[in-house]
Amino acid sequence: MKSFFDRFENFFEGFIFWSRWVQAPMYGGLIIGAFLYMAKFFQELAHMYHQVVGGDIESKVMLTLLSLVDISMVMNLVVMVTIGGYSIFTSKIDVDMHDDKPLWLEGLDAGMLKIKLATSLASISGVQLLKTFVNYREAAEKAGSEGIIIEIVIHMVFIFSALLLGYTEKIIHSYPHGLTGHGHVDEEEEHKEDEHKEEV
C-alpha cells in the first residue's frame, strides 16, 4: 500500500507534467496575433498599389515591397514558434503522415528550433538593414550615422548568435549520446555484440 508521501509525490509529479499546457493559450494568442498582423500586410499591399498607380519613384515602391517581405518573415517566425514550441514543449503533433508536412519540421528538436529562430531574426534584421540602405538619406536624417551603425551591429550580433548556436549543436550532436562521454563505449559494446552474433 502506498504511503501518503508516495501518493503526494505522484500527484505533484503529475501536476508538474500537466503544467506544460500553460503554454497552450500563449500559442493560441500567437495565432490570433498572426491573423491581426495579416491585416497590416494587406494595408501595405494596398499602399503599394496606390504607389504604382500614382507613379511614385522606384525606391518608395521598393521600400513598401521590403515591408511586405518583412511582414511575411515575421509571420514565418510566429508560425515556427507556435508549431515548433507546441510540438517540442507541450504535446506531439501527429503530422508524419501528412503529405503537406513542411520540410522544416523534419528532425525538429529544441536545438534546431533555436537555430531556425536565430537565423530568422538575422534575416529580418537584414531586411531592415536593406530598407535603411534603400532609403539611406532619409534614414540618416532621422537616426543619424550612429543609428545606422547600431543597426549594423545588431544585425551582426544576430548572425554571430546563429553561427554560435549552430556550432554548439554540431558539437553536441557529434557525441552519440550527447555530452555524457559514454558514446564511444556504447559503440564498442554494440560492435562486440554484433561480432558475437556473427560467430553464433
From TrEMBL:
Cellular localisation: Cell membrane
Membrane topology note: Multi-pass membrane protein
Keywords noted in UniProt: Cell membrane, Membrane, Transmembrane, Transmembrane helix
Record carries keyword Transmembrane: yes
Signal peptide: none
GO cellular component labels: plasma membrane
Superkingdom of the organism of origin: Bacteria
Cited InterPro entries: UPF0114 (IPR005134), UPF0114_bac (IPR020761)
Residues spanning the membrane: 20-42, 63-89, 148-167
HAMAP family for this protein: UPF0114
NCBIfam families assigned to the protein according to its UniProt record, in alphabetical order: HI0507 (TIGR00645)
Record-linked PANTHER family: UPF0114 PROTEIN YQHA (PTHR38596:SF1)
Family the entry assigns: Belongs to the UPF0114 family.
Protein name: UPF0114 protein SAMN04488029_1210
Annotated source species: Reichenbachiella faecimaris
